Amino acid sequence: MATIPINYIELREGIAYIIGTSVKVAVIVSSYVYADSSIEWISENYDLTPAQVHTALAYYYDHPTEINRQHHTSQQLAQKIGTALSDKIEQLRQSKHD
Length: 98
Known about the structure:
Layout: E1 9-12, E2 15-18, H1 25-34, H2 39-46, H3 50-62, H4 64-81, H5 85-97
């Protein structure tokens, strides 16, 4: 029996995305690793399946230097414009409770 790999990740201009979406792997990682969001929360708020989220995390564990660099670059940009991803995630969480 042949196995067929399922791949949810695609590279666009060197950046990893969930296939068929505009969601970057680095955003999923930031939500899960740095903002302590659950798989369920990420799935619901980014309109992804749990499999897509887990695949993004698996990609991160295979490419931590690349994704951490993207996260760091995003955080620097967010500081310049005044809105960190963690702040946005917290705002989303609060709006779901209201």
